[in-house]
Amino acid sequence: MNEETPRQKKIASVIQKELATLLQGNIRKEGLSNLIISITKVHVTVDLAFAKIFLSIFPSTSALEYLKSMQENSFKIRHELSQIMKNQMRRTPQLAFYIDDSLDYIEKIDSALKNPENPISNSDLLPSKQKR
Using CA atoms, how far apart are residues 64 and 79, in angstroms rounded to an integer? Predict the structure, then answer.
C-alpha cells in the first residue's frame, strides 16, 4: 500500500510550505543572489517520523554541493522547522534531502524528441527493432 493518507498529504504540504519559507529566508540572510532552491515534493512516512524532501536547485552545476551542505545541517534545519511548527505538530519528522532530477529527465526526453533521429517517428531506431 503506497497510497498516502490525507493526514500524510496535509503534513507533507505544511512541511513543504514552511521549509520553503525557511530556506528562502536563509538564502537571503546569507546574501546568495545566484541560488534558487525549490522543494518539489515531500513524502512523509505513515508514522510521521521521517520526511523525504526532494529539491530542485538552480544552478544545477552546484546542486550536489548545496545538497551535501543541507544533509550535513539537517539537524539544524529540523530544529528551526520544529520552532516554526511547534503549534501544529508535536514531533517534527527527521529530514532526508534528495535531488529531484525529474526536470533533467524531462529535458532529456524533450531533446530526444527534437533530435532528427526521433525513435518514435522512426521505429527502426528503437533497440528492439535493430538486428543483433
Answer: 23
56: part of which helix (H) or strand (E)? strand 50-58
Q: What is the pLDDT of residues 12-66, one digit of tens each?
A: 999 999 999 998 888 888 877 788 888 999 999 999 899 999 998 888 787 888 8
Checking DSSP bridges between strand 94-99 and strand 50-58, what pairing results, if any?
Answer: parallel
Question: Grid coordinates in use for 82?
Answer: 520544529
The alpha carbon of 98 is separated from its chain's Cα centroid by a whole number of angstroms, namely 6
Q: Beta 36-44 vs 50-58: how paired, if at all? A: antiparallel
- Structural domains in the chain plus CATH codes: 6-100 (3.30.300.20), 102-132 (no CATH)
Decide: 100 and 56 in contact? Cβ < 8 Å. Answer: yes
Q: How far apart are CA 122 and CA 126, in angstroms?
A: 8
Residue 48 burial by Cβ neighbours in a 10 Å radius (0-12, 13-18, 19+): middle
Q: How far is CA 131 from CA 120, 124, 125, in A?
A: 18, 10, 11
Q: Report, in angstroms and rounded to the nearest whole number, the Rg of the chain calculated over CA atoms.
A: 19
